[in-house]
Amino acid sequence: MKVLFLGDIVGRPARRFLKDFLPELVKREAFDFVIAIGENAAGGSGLTEKVAGELFSSSIDILTTGDHAFKKREIFSLFDRMDIIRPLNYGELAKGRGYIIKEKAGRKIGVINLLGRVFMQPADCPFKAVSAALNEILKETKSIVVDIHAEATSEKVALGYFLARKVSAVLGTHTHIPTADARIIDRYTAYITDVGMTGALDSVLGRQKEDIISRFLTNVPQRFNLAEGDVRAQGVVLNIDEKTGRAESIERVEYKGENR
Question: Structural domain of residue 32, as residue ranges?
Answer without folding.
Answer: 2-259
